[in-house]
Design goal:
The chain is of the alpha+beta class. It folds into two domains: 1-33; 47-268, Extracellular Endonuclease, subunit A (Extracellular Endonuclease, Chain A, 3-Layer(aba) Sandwich). Helix content is 27%, strand content 19%. The chain is built from eight helices and eleven strands. The chain has helices at 2-27, 86-90, 117-120, 140-145, 157-160, 163-178, 244-251, 261-268, and strands spanning 61-62, 67-71, 76-84, 126-129, 152-155, 182-189, 197-198, 203-204, 208-215, 220-227, 241-242. The strands form three sheets. A seven-stranded antiparallel beta sheet has the order 1-2-3-6-9-10-11.
Amino acid sequence: MQTFKIQNRFLRKYAANGLMLFSLFLVIGCSPQLNPGKGGGNRVNSSPHLKFETDALSDLIRYQGFVVRYDYLHRVPTFVIHRITPQQLSDSAGIKAKRSNRFWVDKTRLVSKSATSDDYRKSGFDRGHHAPAGDFVYSQELKDESFVYSNISPQKAGLNRGPLAKIERQIREKAEVCKCRAYVITGTHFESNTSNSIGSNQVGVPDYVYKLVYYPKTSHMFAFLLDNRLGKYPGDLSQYQKTVDDIEALTQEDFFDRLDDALEDKLEKKRLTFQSENKPHFN
């Protein structure tokens, strides 16, 4: 895992050197040809959810409330990244959005590569959100958007309505307590390409679902790994806690890689206690 991170950082530094060369071209009047709409500051090609990630937006599906790296083979998200703000959870001036339960297919971007309602019908699995509808309290548009199938994976009812729902609730509570933003990553992991599938589109049933959360204001990170093959999920949330390093080793991803390297190393190896939902705090 350490070798993987070192290689990733080398590539980031290489990119930074490329930026310096670009600046030099500008100074001497030999600026390279730019493609319209590709600038880093262009709103269409950027996302507030990627503040701590170097993932290129061209490799992701961009929605207003979240971004998705999509698994076209299994027709589920590889991972979803979204930002939570206290305002979207508790703005007293807002009108509370209602849960519609209208799941929809993104025909514009996924065409025929999306799961559908027929795939889930009588499958025995919940349609589990990655960016939860509950994170969009005062925007009906964003709550409705979260029901797109590119934000959904098949999850056991005990998982979706049990520990995952509890983790999501506590993530929101902690953001409200510290009056700060949270950056959340929710992903799937398949142990092999022969994993279980549902429906005529053979939508993959992930073996594991993981969730990472970072609170920049308090410099706290939490990580969870949940087995989607179990029937029951006993015990408290500490039973499912991991470090971010653990999840990165499993998935071969490098999350939160825009952080300073020393801070990233420190936070991602630490396993903090995720306190009871009744007493959310950051000890």
